[in-house]
Amino acid sequence: MFDRYEAGETAVLVHIDFSDEDSREDLLELQLLVDSAGARSVGVITGSRRAPDRKFFLGTGKAEELAALVAATEANVVIFNHALSPAQERNLEILCQCRVLDRTTLILDIFAQRARTHEGKLQVELAQLRHMSTRLVRGWTHLERQKGGIGLRGPGETQLETDRRLLRGRIKSINRRLEKVDKQREQSRRARQRSDLTTVSLVGYTNAGKSTLFNALTTSEVYAADQLFATLDPTLRKLELDNGAVFLADTVGFIRHLPHELVAAFKATLQETRQADLLLHVVDCADDNMNDNFEQVQEVLKEIEADEIPQLLVCNKIDLLEEIGPKIDFDPEGRPYRVWISAQKGLGLDLLKQAVDQLTAATIVELSLRIPAMAGHYLGQFYRLDAIQQKEYDDLGNCILSIRLPQPDWHRLVKQSQGELETFILEPEIDKVVC
């Protein structure tokens, strides 16, 4: 059996540029992630390849250069800005004689440090266990077969099989507990829907200033810092506007190539984004990678099926730019689509409230539907959304429904039904949007 090396505070970073645009990462972002994790960079290995090397990811020559740099700097961890296979991690650890982490493991470690609530800790543990399940074999190669003899006969499982069974049991246990959390959140969402208050969710790339903006708008004291993933647990506050109050939600920031383990584990948290009526997409307009970060967030929103929700682009940190002041940009129909602000300096917050007020003034849809008996499964969906206002049946057994629900929920149901729900609408002239 080999002992896993301890990951310490001094790190050598590895960044490879690939010809494939989809595989490229940002070296500056890796350095920010390392700083957020509490480690100190003592060296960087860079290079270019067409495709990863199967054994060392970065090629034999570069791998030897990496090992020499680790020895020279006495670094105790190597951090790759890419996803490594279990075999690549093990080969690099043998070569460098220190712990090797990939980008996914680094992000999971940051999440583990940031988790504050019981739910957040469960979600992080679930993501870590799913990631760990593919890497168990490396630590137990000496027990691939149990030996016979007195005192060595066991239940017939190898140690690896035992670990995998225990891991599966723990994952099931966490999933059951998170399902309860999800039900509790769903009850809270239904209560908010019954109160007819619109939900506005802050989304954006990590460290774009979402929590600072949340605090400035709601006078709250949510933890905000100049570091990646400062916020993990969603927080909701009521925000008073001219046309009434709305619920404002602060959520976890996104990042390019967000690990799928996190997307799956944070399903309950991301529901706050999926169920929102309006998304405030906060971008750091002083960041040179603003456009790229914007596209990365759009990809994650699509992955969690939140891309159909109306968005208002919030260009934050204008205090770091010259000749740009607070303002609202309107589309040809006179609706705001972009607001320029500085959450840190409090610039343009009144303009942002004005834009949100205008966009949330018409987000509730009222419809009358004739649901055929063969399509009765849609009733359950409307019940879960607490959208049914009135229900009766005609002589043919069709269900005549009057529903009232947020516009994004209706659009999402139409998308899931592949447009079938739209064919059930009665008297299109009463399909209206109300305040």
From TrEMBL:
GTP binds at residues 204-211, 229-233, 250-253, 316-319, 342-344. Gene3D superfamilies: 6.10.250.2860, GTPase HflX, N-terminal domain, P-loop containing nucleotide triphosphate hydrolases. Mg(2+) binds at residues 211, 231. GO terms for cellular component: cytoplasm. Keywords: Coiled coil, Cytoplasm, GTP-binding, Magnesium, Metal-binding, Nucleotide-binding. Residues 164-191 form a coiled coil. InterPro entries: EFG_III/V, G_HFLX_dom, GTP-bd, GTP-bd_M, GTPase_HflX, GTPase_HflX_N, GTPase_HflX_N_sf, P-loop_NTPase. It is found in: Cytoplasm. The keyword GTP-binding applies. Its cofactor is Mg(2+). One of its GO terms (molecular function) is GTP binding. Residues 198-364 form the Hflx-type G domain. GTPase that associates with the 50S ribosomal subunit and may have a role during protein synthesis or ribosome biogenesis. Belongs to the TRAFAC class OBG-HflX-like GTPase superfamily. HflX GTPase family. Monomer. Associates with the 50S ribosomal subunit. HAMAP family: GTPase_HflX. This is GTPase HflX.
